[in-house]
Amino acid sequence: MLSDYSNKFEKLISNGNPYYPFTKSKVGFSSEDIINYSPEFQPKVFLMLAAIHKSVIGIATNIEDFEYKNWFAQHFHEEWYNWILALNMKGIHHENYIPLPIHPWQMNHYVERIFSHLIENEILIPLEVTIEVSPTASLRTLISLKNLSAPYIKLPVSIHASTTSRSYPSLFVKAVPILSQFMAKILDSEPLISEKLNILREDVGIYLNTTGEEEAEHLSVTFRENVVSCCLARQEIAVVVAALFEKFPVSNNSLFIHIMQFAGYKTLKGAEQYFTKYVDLVLGSYLDLYLIHGISLEGHQQNTLAVFEHGEIKRFIAKDLGGIDISASIVKSHALLGGIRLSSYFKKNDIFVRGQLLHTVYQSHLGELVLLLADHFNCSENFFWNVIRDKTEERFKVLKDRVDSVRWRTEYDAILKAKWPARSYLQNRFVNEKQLYHFFKNPLN
């Protein structure tokens, strides 16, 4: 089943983000926890399906006339039936409660302690009902094993993974349905971009609305569209980009090289043609979104899916919209953003929005492929950077009439000529600041 293939590629990743310090660290997990819950070990995880009283939760959604219980029962039918049965056996009417998935590690280490008052008063009721799931590339985003087309479940697992806390604040739970709707409108208005890029929407979220944020971030959930049910045709397979860099022991070649050769591109000239198509699709979506709309999606390896058909690259899919950055200067004149009230995503200084594009798309995604290809063909990295430069210049020329002339020149110089900023991740962690940069020579200049 194609959904199973796509899920298997999520578990293939063993190296992690090449720019994060302590990229595979999981501070808070024991060695046993790492084996039981990390995607590298392909574990089965049994989420607890608790019952929480409707009076203490908020439902974040952009779906009109939404009824959470009906929606949940549609996607998780067997678990829904077992949930009602478990409440009936306790003599509790389910009408005043909703089903809430909780990660077992989170239940044992945070929920039972922080929310003991809710449990004692039967506001939150733990039940012996589970959803059988498996982690994707992110250990806190999980897919149902009984229904591979059901929505992904994203939960707080309050450890420090890659030195960042993986709790899930209600701010993000409330924001992602709005961002999903916003991005869907953008793509509907841009057919030339939407044929190159899809998004995985997160239209439903649950959060606590009767407690402080420091507590609420440990008990929440959002549901993300499943890649198969929304985005893939019959012969297409989605591969998380981070998996393209994983090597096979027999050939010592990466998955990207295997796919490229399977499609018939085996020489340096063939690799140039294949990479050119790849870059055209990446920049024709992510760079266009930035230049036209002032939007930088977090297009790094883990948050990007490459869609292939018989080895040929078709398009990309963006996930985890909570990492989006939006230029405040573009927002003021943008009709599609009129109803958005998400000030934390608006950046007054475009260096931050551009920095997101340059780091996640140009460096972490395309730049790492340049290193991979140059190493495989034993050639200069400039050979493949030239492809990126040519395609970047092409996008600027195509979009010149759609971008303010002053901004067009500013962005052209910043992306193609000036030094690039790189986030100082280790320093950021020490001073608790996310926007520290150093600068390095521009590979496109």
TrEMBL record:
Domain of life: Eukaryota
Segments forming domain Aerobactin siderophore biosynthesis IucA/IucC-like C-terminal: 272-436
Gene Ontology molecular-function annotations: acid-amino acid ligase activity
Domain Aerobactin siderophore biosynthesis IucA/IucC N-terminal: from-to ranges: 8-245
InterPro entries: Aerobactin_biosyn_IucA/IucC_N (IPR007310), IucA/IucC-like_C (IPR022770), LucA/IucC-like (IPR037455)
Database matches in Pfam families: FhuF, IucA_IucC
A single BP term in Gene Ontology: siderophore biosynthetic process
Designated name of the protein: Uncharacterized protein
Protein source organism: Parthenolecanium corni
